[in-house]
Amino acid sequence: MDSFGSTIVEDTNSSSLTTRESHHKRKTLVAPDINISLDQSEGSLHSDDFLDAPDDLDINIDDIETPDETDSLEYLANDDTPVASVKKIPGHFFDDGDHEEGEATNGRLWRTVIIGEQEHRIDLQIIKPYMKVVTHGGYYGEGLNAIIVFAACFLPDSGSPDYHYIMENLFLYIISSLELLVAEDYMIIYLNGATPRRRMPGLGWLKKCYQMIDRRLRKNLKSLIIVHPSWFIRTVLAISRPFISAKFINKIQYVHSLEELEQIIPMENVHIPECVFQYDEERMKARSESVQFENRPKETENFPMYNATAIKYVSLLCNVL
C-alpha cells in the first residue's frame, strides 16, 4: 500500500509501472458544499425580527455598562450583528485569506476594522458608489468639535439585488468612519431631503447603528439636526422612543431649510448634494407661493355691501307689493 492509498497490482511485470504512475498522480481533495445564503434569516441584520419591538424593549442605552475609556465600539450582550466578511460576495467567489487594508482579492478591495473587539472586513468595492453618505463638514465652536454630514440621498435603492449585502458593509463603514472622524464633541447633520422612500433606511438598520455607537460617542454627540424632516422620519423616531434614551431624544432638532441650517452651523465645509439644493429651492418656492396666496386681496370682502343693497331693494319691492 502506497502513501496515497493506491492499490498495488500483483502482476510482477506491471508492478514497476504501477509504482511509477503512483508517484506522478496527485491526490485531489474535494471540498464539501457550503450553503451560504443572503436571505433574511435568523441573526441577519435585515431580519424582520428587528422590526418587531417586544414589550420589554424600553431600556436606557446610556445605562448599559460599557468601559469608560475605550477607542473601540462595544457590542451589546445580545448583539447579533452579522459580520459582512463571512457573507458570500454576490456574483463572486469568496476568498478566505488574510489580507491587509486595501489589498485586492478577486478584483475587490477590502478594509479590516475592529468594532467591539471583533475584526470585520468591509467590501469597499461594493459600497464605493455610496461612500458619500458620510462626510466631514468641518468644525464648529472652539476646539475639534466635528460636524458629521449624513446624506440619506446617497443610500442604495432597496430594490437592488445585493441590497442586504451592501447595507451590511455600509453599516460597518459608517460606524468605523464615525470613530475615526470624531475627536471631541460633535454634531450630526442628517440631510433627509430629496430622499425617495425606497432609499430610506429601515428601522432595524437605524436601531443597530445607534446600538453599535459606543458610550463615548453617544455622550459626545451634542446635537442631531434633521434637515427637511418628512412624515416618515418623524414616524420612525416616534417608534424608536422605546429603545432610545430620553437624553438622545432631547438632542434631536428639526430644520426645515438650508437657510435655517446656515444660522446654526458654519457651512463653509459642509457638502450639500445638488439634489438637496434643488429640493430646498422647490420647497422655498412653494412656501413663497403659499404665502402670496394667503395674503392676496379677497374679493369677497365687498360682498357685505352688495348684500345690504340687495336687501334694501327687496324690502322696497315688498312694500310696493
Number of strands: 8
Give the overall pLDDT as a whole number. Answer: 72
Q: How many helices in DSSP terms?
A: 10
Percent of sequence in beta strands: 5-15%
Read across the widest sheet, the strand sequence of neighbours is 4-5-6-7-8
Low-confidence runs (pLDDT<50, min 5 residues)?
Answer: 1-24, 34-100
The Cα radius of gyration reads 32 Å
Report the end-to-end length measured between terminal Cα atoms. 135 Å
**CATH domain class:** Alpha Beta
Class based on secondary structure composition and strand pairing: alpha/beta
Shape: elongated
Fourth-level CATH superfamily: CRAL-TRIO lipid binding domain
Describe it for me?
The structure is a single chain. This protein is α/β, with parallel strands linked by helices and 321 residues long. It has one domain: Phosphatidylinositol Transfer Protein Sec14p (3-Layer(aba) Sandwich). The strands form two sheets. A five-stranded mixed β-sheet has the order 4-5-6-7-8. The N terminus is likely disordered. The chain is built from ten helices and eight strands. It is 35% helix and 14% strand. The longest helix is centred in the C-terminal third of the chain and has 21 residues. β4 and β5 form a beta hairpin. The chain is elongated.
